[in-house]
Amino acid sequence: ETGVTQTPRHLVMGMTNKKSLKCEQHLGHNAMYWYKQSAKKPLELMFVYSLEERVENNSVPSRFSPECPNSSHLFLHLHTLQPEDSALYLCASSHGRDSTFEQFFGPGTRLTVL
Amino acid sequence: GQSLEQPSEVTAVEGAIVQINCTYQTSGFYGLSWYQQHDGGAPTFLSYNALDGLEETGRFSSFLSRSDSYGYLLLQELQMKDSASYFCAVLPDTGRRALTFGSGTRLQVQP
Predict the structure, then answer these.
(1) A33 close to B (CB below 8 A)
(2) SS3 call for A9
(3) Which residues 41-60 of A are in CB contact (within 8 Å) with B?
(4) Which of A57-66, B62-71, B77-86 is predicted with the least confidence, judged by mean pLDDT?
(5) 8 Å CB contact of A43 and B101
(6) B73-106: string of b/e by CB count within 10 Å (b at 16+)?
(7) Which of A18, A24, B29, B93 is placed for a possible disulfide with A79 were both Cys, Cβ 3.0 to 4.6 Å?
(8) For A83, phi and psi rounded to 5 degrees?
């Protein structure tokens, strides 16, 4: 148990659907992250939130829209995705940007776009 | 920018010692981290080297040499449960303060 939960664990969606991924951390951290993990590729940082403010947007297409309503919750809203967006989406948290070297990851959402 | 290179796969036998290397090209960084990820699981933090030298945590040790742009993770007394992917990552000291990960090394421990 890492203290970071993600729902759903698996998601299959069509290109015209709208869905949201949810992440919740129970560790009292104040920085949260979204990563994309594709086979045989490094983890790709998508977004960083620190104290509920987005501090990093790593050239992610606008069909991905993050939301951080408070320091414990992070969402990733998805719409009009493409098949190449199929991947494992990982959420992580850390004590703060000064502790970024040690991140706590959730189990991920396996997304398949048809 | 930053780039990290790791071998894609390593195979070793139970009880042995294995070293997973990470070479990097980066303009500057605070330190080198290592993460473990089992199939279907979340990456979990193993170690962090801010300074050159060896850091030991039980059966796992991590090493950093800034002058050689090189680090490694050393796993001793291998167990079957150590079969997983291992990622190195650097925390840049300029620009964005976020980890940049290597592609990962898949370790297979055989009986």
Answers:
(1) yes
(2) coil
(3) 41-43, 45, 48, 56, 58
(4) A57-66
(5) yes
(6) bebeebeeebbbbbbbbbbbeeebbbbbbbbbbb
(7) A18
(8) -55, -30
